[in-house]
Prior knowledge:
Layout: H1 23-36, H2 59-80, H3 87-100, H4 117-131, H5 142-152, H6 166-178, H7 185-198, E1 199-201, E2 204-205, H8 216-232, H9 235-252, H10 277-284, H11 292-307, H12 356-359, H13 366-369, E3 372-376, E4 381-386, E5 391-396, E6 414-416, H14 425-430, E7 436-439, E8 452-457, E9 460-466, E10 471-480, E11 483-492, E12 508-512, E13 547-551, H15 562-566, E14 569-573, E15 577-579, E16 584-588, E17 591-595, E18 601-608, E19 612-622, E20 625-635, E21 640-648, H16 654-660, E22 662-665, E23 669-673, E24 679-683
Antiparallel strand pairs: 1-2, 3-4, 4-5, 5-6, 7-14, 8-9, 9-10, 10-11, 11-21, 12-13, 14-20, 15-20, 16-17, 17-18, 18-21, 19-20, 22-23, 23-24
Helix pairs in contact: 1-2, 2-3, 2-4, 4-6, 6-7, 6-8, 8-9, 8-10
Amino acid sequence: MTPPYLSLPPTDRLLSPRTGWTRAHWETLTDHLLDSVVPYASPGFAQYRLPGRASWSGVALDGLEGFARTFLAAAFRIAGARGRVRPALIERYATGLANGTDPSSGEAWPELTDCSQQMVEAASIAVGLHESRPWLWDRLSSEVRERVVAWLSGFVGKRTWDNNWMLFQTVSEEFVKSVGGPYDQHEIDRGLERIEEWYVGDGWYTDGGTRNFDYYGGWALHLYPLLWTRMSGDDERAKLYRARLTEFLTGYQHFFGSDGAPLHQGRSLCYRFASLAPIWMGALADATPLAPGQTRKLASSVARHFAERGVPDQRGLLSQGWYDTFLPTTQAYSGPASPYWASKGLLGLLLPPEHPVWTAREQMLPIDEGDLTVALPTAGLLLHGTRHDGIVRLVNHGSDHGAPPDDPHYAKLAYSTRTAPEAAEHAWARNVDNHLALLSPDGVPSARGAIHPLECSGRTASSYTETPQGDRVTTTSLVRGPWEIRIHQITSASHPSPPSTPASPPPAVEHTVPTSPTDTPTPPHTDANPQRSTDDDPQGSSEAAPTTTTLALSSRHTGETATQVLGVTVREGGYAVSDVTPPAAVTGPGWALARRTDGLTSAIVGLYGWHRASISRDVESNAFGPHSAVPCLHADTPGVHVSLVVLSGDTVHPSALRDAITVEVSPESIRIAFPDGDHHTHPLPNHPGLS
């Protein structure tokens, strides 16, 4: 059986020329998800204990999560149909509410306690009850309503984590307030006041005050305040939140490829199409820059993208992964039912069938009509997308998930809609892909650590990070179509510069790496048709290692070379491509390339300062497939390094690119010239240590 694993209605190419999907497809998808969890329900339907790895909260809480998160989808389905759904759906969740709040049922939900997982699930139940109120809440017996209120009001006086969790208390207590139960107005307001401190401008929130920019900004920090206004009727705050969401969506609409694939960045990625929550809320709250036909095209592209790749799976379930189960995509708090926060991506069902989002003809998005470059300076993110292959790439100079330890879904230099970082524990320890690593003598790579943004505008973004030893890596990215040119400057804080001393250009030296005595010539090859590969061995290429010219950077104080100053070598990886079979790979003079069977190609080209190229391979390390490959560059000396990173669905010719893009380096600046005459000059700051 091949995906999609559900029976969908016929496509409508007149109404939806790009996806074929209509509201009927969304209703079918939702019904399939809800029907498929029934075999895993407890006898009283208060818990849904789905198969998969348990969370750290335990199976009872995982069962509550199964109820609450699927209930959110059921509530949107019931409300969107104005109650005209199969009676069994309403009855099932009404029964679950009765038994989940009945201590004698044997299925009772745990009471809410400080910072407990119950708080997350209570918010989904509160939102679902509000949105489906005429068809469910109002029909519950008074006894059941009293028990539900008593359980939800367990929020009063409790402490939440100081992040998006504060909004769970806000919406839950607001619902209890709306039905006459006990609440604390200070606690409702506290969450709304706290997010004001997290709002950083341009429509962006950070989650908890760190540089934590990810999907939680959309599916939590924009979503819950506007859901709260639907409960409270607070028009003044609603106006503020609508304006912010509109501004957010101006950039966020570009986080998706033309095929509907979301950018694979940040935590809780197993929630998948929950990424659509702010898109749908924009239409629901009249707070979007998108035309109705664009909203549906984007949303339907995402849902169809996952359905065509086996989500939901053959059981009708959402697994703990991306396309398939892949536990490194999850967190320790993720249980078998956690992926059902994807229910937020079904929010559009609240829009009535006659709404323009459902009746307007699909319209193309910017990525469908041309290449795009979008700078998000507040978040330090730079997007570049290409129409011909529909790929969107995110260059990361601003999101680091707060304090160490860092995370492969935040610490990389770049992410995309067609690739994932090498996230398995064994691969993360090596930290190869989309990372500039200083390798210690025993081969341990430096971590990126906290990101300090410097600039993000136009086609460029830059930031610096520091190692625990005080070494600084400053990186500037310049994007152009599918290309990203990275300029790295590695300096040491352990050798400060003397007082104002006129700088003189350091001498240029050639670095030639001899071939191994066992190397033998190989048949001719072309970089467009890779046949050979090397596995993470910078001297393992069967070609003679290239000769490159670099600045011999030194300390003005001691005359030591950069290698002597830092005691490290340098490695940079491009995008990891993964597949069901090992990607084809090839290295050449100053470049490396890996290619999937579908043509998706990752290449890295050394433009300045690099000595060797290699391919790093791994298995069971990537959410996109069991076999992965990363093209890499290596250098014996830190200092200035310039590389070209390419991710494309088209044929890539690294040799031609290396010859066509010129780099001129002086002690003061770097000048990069493209074959069409376009050029970019980047100043080299005189950081302490190396110059």
